[in-house]
Amino acid sequence: MKSHHISSTDYAYQSIEGLILSGKYTAGQRLIYANLEKMLGVSKTPIISALSRLEQKGFVNYIKNRGYYVARKDLNRLPHDGQAQNGVAGAETDDADLTALSADELFAPTSLNSVIYQNIKEMIRTLKVAPGQKLIYSDLEKEFGVSKTPIINALSKLESEGYVYIKKNVGCYVKESQPDEIYEVMEARTCLEVSNVDFVMRHLKQTDLSHMEKLQKRYRAHQSPIFDRTKLIANADFHIYLAKIGRNRFMIRYIRNIYEWLEFRLRLDVLPPERVLQSENEHDEIIEALRQRDGDLLKSLLQKHLTGTTRYHTIHSPN
Predict the structure, then answer these.
(1) Which of 47, 275, 298, 314 could form an SS bridge with 183, CB 3.0 to 4.6 Å?
(2) Which CATH class is domain 112-174?
């Protein structure tokens, strides 16, 4: 297994940069060493090294005998050097208005806990740890080169999101999917996407239509005998961008989280070829409803499209 360990300086650099980019630290604010040590769980030395690198990149300024200060007011609009786009988390975000609405999804983790959380989540997503497998604290400490505390914090968050479960006095395990759970999530997805149509109709722009057409072209372009991971991601990108057109940050967040949750749990071999083709055609109908600015038609098409897919996944979900 490839090691996920990075240096304490890199952790500190990514974390402080994320705090600035996400607006948690604002222009002119002083960066206190002691506060950063406590927040990030690293010593003063890597923090100083990280701040020096951030100064070179223009994120902070150093004032002699006073310390480091956040540099400019427009930093929250800059792209992050290490921005990763994996799986559903890599959905299209090149519209400026939409990027502003989902900055928390684009920027680097803001703490060591968040870095470890993302790494363990990626292990689950890529099946490096299997459903039902026990997660050993000491193995994770060695894998990521950190102490037990950020591991515990990360697993606690993953438990709250339904990716793992913790048995008291026994340990932590990767959660296995239940058919009723998958059905309930997919029902929630349908309710949210249909409800979001009112926001979509209120904010729809011509540039949004052009981008939806681009995403649909990519969705159709990938041909496979099964509904594979590439097709799954292209489908998620289509629906997440549709949610973003509504410019409602909470709808975007919840719909995006649902597609990410489903990416971890859906079997990708249950959709027959005819249903995949039907799904592609339904995407075209959705775009046409957008083009006509017909909200009622769009709601009807989304309801049909999403429930049609739900039926296959719930029938074939593992017991």
Answers:
(1) 314
(2) mainly alpha
